[in-house]
Specification:
With 216 residues, the chain is mainly α. The chain contains seven helices and two strands; from the N terminus they run αααβαααβα.
Length: 216
């Protein structure tokens, strides 16, 4: 099969480090603190509300991760690690693109055996680069998962403390509610408590064995 510069360059351009992001900062914290930042939740704005139900409380873990100081610091650090991982891929892609373009210019003058050999070498280098990008993505994702677990472990005793202080008897995920009175939303107080307990977070990239990149 013959190699086409356009399709080969397109394949190179698609090689990138892809990871899941931490919960977006657009998640509101709710409660009294959140009310100062944003209007009432959309459900209340649509005319819902009603009496406050004692013992029934709400929490948005996504908003805790997005708004807590440790969560914001983690997002910034993960962005830095992702940029560094992508820069590593870009540095290897540039000479490969140049070699592919040079091959396209010279291929018509090359003996068939040499042309096939160079073509196969380019394809192999592309495959290696894609494997490297996949491996980098897996390392970033492993780092993200570990950081989220650290923050969650620190948040759990804070949640329990706020839950007890509010005399809650049942805790719902705020994202699953369709409407009602959000007065017992614990999210803002959990964020404040987590900030006091874990004002920041630092971490390095989780390194994985190279064979893990091809395991999936």
């Amino acid at each position: 099969m013959s190699i086409r510069t356009v399709s080969f360059i397109a394949a190179l351009s698609a090689v990138s480090v892809t990871v899941l992001a931490l919960p977006a900062a657009a998640q509101t914290i709710g409660g009294a603190r959140g009310a100062q930042q944003q209007a009432q939740p959309a459900a209340q704005a649509q005319g819902l509300g009603g009496p406050l139900i004692p013992g029934v409380c709400l929490l948005s873990r996504e908003a805790v991760f997005a708004n807590a100081a440790a969560g914001r610091a983690a997002s910034e650090r993960l962005a830095q690690l992702t940029q560094a991982a992508q820069a590593e891929i870009d540095a290897q892609r540039t000479p490969l693109e140049a070699d592919a373009q040079a091959f396209e210019l010279e291929s018509a003058r090359l003996p068939e055996a040499q042309r096939t050999q160079r073509q196969q070498a380019l394809v192999q280098r592309l495959q290696v680069l894609q494997q490297k990008a996949n491996h980098n993505s897996q390392e970033i994702e492993a780092t993200r998962a570990k950081v989220l677990e650290r923050i969650a472990n620190e948040a759990q005793p804070v949640i329990a403390q706020v839950y007890a202080a509010k005399s809650c008897g049942l805790l719902f995920d705020r994202a699953t509610t369709l409407g009602g009175n959000f007065g017992n939303d614990l999210t803002a107080e959990v964020v404040a408590g987590l900030d006091a307990r874990m004002p920041s977070i630092s971490f390095e990239l989780e390194r994985l064995p190279q064979q893990a990149a091809g395991a999936q």
